[in-house]
Amino acid sequence: MELFANKKPDHVQAILASIVDYTDDAIFSSSLEGTITSWNNGAEKLFGFSKEEALGKPISLILPADRITENETLTVRLNKGEAIDHFETERLRKDGKLVYISLTVSPLKDAQNNITGIGQIARDFTKHRKSRETFKALLESAPDAMVIVGNDGKIQMVNAQTEKIFLYKRTELIGNMVEILIPQRYTQNHPSHRSSFFSDPRVRGMGIGLELYGKRKDNTEFPVEISLSPLETETGIVALAAIRDVSLRKKSEEKFKALLESAPDAMVIVGQDGKIQMVNAQVRNIFQFERTEIEGQPIEILIPQRYHQAHPQHRKSFFSDPRVRSMGIGLELFGRRKDGVEFPVEISLSPLETEEGTLALAAIRDITGRKKSEYKIQQLNRELEEHIVELESFSYSVSHDLRAPLRAIDGFIAMFMDKFQDDVDPEGKRLLGNIRRNVTKMSNLINDLLMLSRIGAKDIDQTQINMKTLVNSVLDEFRETHSHATVQVGDLHPTSGDIALMRQVFLNLISNAFKYSSKKEQPHIEIGSVESKGEIQYYVRDNGVGFDMEYYNKLFGVFQRLHSPQDYNGTGVGLAIVKRVITRHGGHVWAEGKEGEGATFYFSLNTTTHGAS
Amino acid sequence: MEQADRVEVLLVEDNPDDAELTMHALKLGDSKINLLHLNDGAEALNFVFAKKSFENKRIQNDLKLVLLDLKLPKIDGLEILKRIREDERTRTLPVVILTSSREKKDIAAAYSLGVNSYVVKPVEFEFYMHVVKTLTLYWNTINEKPIGQI
pLDDT tens digits, residue range A32-72? Predict the structure, then answer.
């Protein structure tokens, strides 16, 4: 080959020729005029032209149109004796496609050191370029700011996210010291951190356990998280820093902490290892422990000794099925204060999903106060029950012991009048009759009072009541004694309630209506019901003597009467019974009246609780 | 206490006024009635079971009815009823509670112990007379005495 002509012993030349021919790189040369003078196997393979097709052809054979100037510039520089380092470019293949190559160009000189031609070594760089582009694309698309820093501390490459979060243009960063991205107060120590990374380059988080901050172009700071990886490149090891802006996360962490702090319950976050990771301020109020005394401690520190053994198993079962739940439903739970005192608690558990896995958030409420008032309520209830029992035995005595003397009075007067009827004059008989009438009245009073006291203590038996049937059966009792009155029964909504008590209500109201209208020429009574505002209002109306609304507040009182017993007899308990029965059914009573014109008595029952149509 | 050769009706009543009224009523109904009034519970049981002062007297053999008050000294009416029903000899003896109490628990207790009837004494005299007369007429005349009692 003329390349080595007459310069070296033949066998050396042959070896060199063979190496040149069999290397993978394309090695070829051209004359100063641009004619191809040599073409090895590698060139045949890379460009697709055989030796025969290439030799003697102009070098422009493999030059794309836009690279002709590049080649001329190279030739000029070579002629000036400049050395040209390898660079990346494109050349044309026989099939018309471009091939990306790394190219080394060197002058060929003769014995007199004159430049006689140009030698070129080309290597296929298509794959290399592709992987480099992939890397760049990866870097670009990374969600974190990616900064590549050389061991001299200079920024070599940044991605789009870096521009976005640090507010610098790419061109303003590349070539600058990386400290440009770090707050002033850390810049002094940073070079030594950097050199310690390069002396032991491995993947690591930066400043673990420390709060790290980045600095933007406008000098504002923001919290960051940084992980470092070494990158081996042709120019040596560089550091790839992935920087994440954690402002938002910090904010939500702070929000969570604030929320935790403001909770009215003691909040304790426990890891799967059973250690307390975080508590809020309430823990101090309830358990007396300072935050620093219990964070990192096993949760058992807050639990009475006797539960220590079983607790880890409970914890395990929570973590095996983590969901919001109350702890120990139906059980009495106790917490243990720093001073060892136990107190009743209520605990609800929620799982917290975090980067470190599932944690348990326990909301602990001191229910000492509630337990105390529960106990107090129970005690009061017991006392109340005792009072009711006392009241019952009082009623019993009234019922039994007050009636007996009355019966004796009445009985002996009757026997006396029977035995001595010839010896007693009419005035004597009238007086004795007065005594007996009062005995009957007293007896009725006792009966009414007993009924009134029992309504308060009696349980209400809820049954469906057909009010129309009920009213008609009550009216039947008055048929004979009040046959001259006209009675009009309108629509009566059915209801539910205690049928015996409800019957008593209508009995009292209807008997009043008959009684107070009995002196009218044509007594008229009207009974009905209307539905209004979710309740049913029943009424009993008469055209009797009525009453003065001025004394309305006395109407439903015990022993209160608005009419004299000479005119209308009665115990003064009837309406009080009505009121108590209706109140026990959750309803209310009222009345309207006008003296001499009549009265209407109303009572209401709830439609929702009594299911009327 | 009225003694007689044979006793058809036993009245157990501690209130002398009530006792007098009841006996008056009983006699109005049947002037020849064989009646015994006792005013305490222990005496009443002695009579029914022929013990102590009533030992070896055969007067209780014709007993047709016991009228029993609830509130009694020493042994109350419900206890007497219980003992009468527990004893094989008096298990079927007609017993009527005659009391002032209309308490539900008393009524329930009396019936669960096997009382034949529970009557509340009316206050009004004529009504009282009527009730007592009706009772004795029913148990002494209308109703057939159970077979096999002492």
Answer: 888 999 999 999 999 999 999 999 999 888 999 888 888 88
Do B60 and B7 form a contact (C-beta atoms < 8 A)? yes
Asked if domains A130-245 and A255-360 share a fold, the reply is yes
Opening angle at CA A258, ends A255 and A260, nearest 5? 110
In this prediction the ipTM stands at 0.79
What does the pLDDT read at residue A412? 93
Yes or no: is domain A459-610 CATH 3.30.565.10?
yes
Report d(CA A385, CA A379) in Å as an integer: 10
Bridge partners (DSSP) of residue A240 are A148, A229
- Please give the Cα distance from A584 to A501 (Å, whole number): 10
- Best of A388, A393, A396 to disrupt the B interface (most B CBs within 10 Å) is A396
A407 contacts in B (CB within 8 Å)? 17-18, 21, 100, 121-123, 125, 128
Nearest Cα neighbor of A403 from B127, B76, B90, B136 is: B127
pLDDT score at A173: 92
Strand spans (E) along chain B:
9-12, 35-38, 65-68, 95-99, 117-120
Closest alpha carbon within chain A to B22: A411
B97 - beta bridge partners?
B68, B118
pLDDT digits (tens, 9 = 90+) for A59-70: 888 999 888 888
CATH of the domain at B37: 3.40.50.2300
Would you call A26 exposed, middle or buried from its count of C-beta atoms within 10 A (0-12, 13-18, 19+)? buried
The answer, yes or no, to whether residue A609 has pLDDT greater than 60, is: no
A410: contact with B, CB 8 A cutoff:
yes
Q: Please provide the DSSP assignment of A82-126 as one string.
A: --EEEEEEEEE-TTS-EEEEEEEEEEEE-TT--EEEEEEEEEE-H
d(CA A342, CA A336): 4
Q: Which residues of chain B are within 8 Å of residue A414 when distances are taken between CB atoms?
A: 125-126
Residue A12 tokens, joined: 């050396």
Distance CA A238, CA A231 (A): 5
What CATH number should be reported for the domain whose range is A255-360? 3.30.450.20
Q: What is the biggest distance separating any 2 CA atoms in chain A, rounded to whole angstroms?
A: 186
A457-492 confidence digits (pLDDT tens): 667 788 899 999 999 999 988 877 777 888 999 989
∠ CA A324-A325-A329, rounded to 5°: 180
Distance CA A150, CA A240 (A): 9
- Determine what percent of chain B falls in helix, strand and coil, rounding each to the nearest 5: 45, 15, 40
State the residue range of the domain holding B104.
9-140
CA-based Rg of chain A, rounded to a whole angstrom? 55
User: What are the backbone dihedrals phi and psi of residue A147, each rounded to the nearest 5 degrees, phi first?
Assistant: -125, 125
Nearest CA-CA partner of A101 in A65, A78, A67, A69? A67
- Name the CATH topology of A130-245: Beta-Lactamase (3.30.450)
Measured between CA atoms, how close is A611 to chain B, in angstroms? 30
The bridge status of strand A342-354 relative to strand A325-326 is antiparallel
For position A6, what pLDDT does the model report?
54
Q: What is the pLDDT of residues A546-568, one digit of tens each?
A: 888 888 888 887 767 777 766 77
Nearest to A6 by CA among A111, A78, A140, A93: A111
Q: Which of B125, B127, B130 to mutate to test the interface with A (most CBs of A within 10 A)?
A: B125
Query: pLDDT tier at A610 (50, 70, 90 boundaries)?
Result: very low
- What is the domain class of A2-124 according to CATH? alpha beta
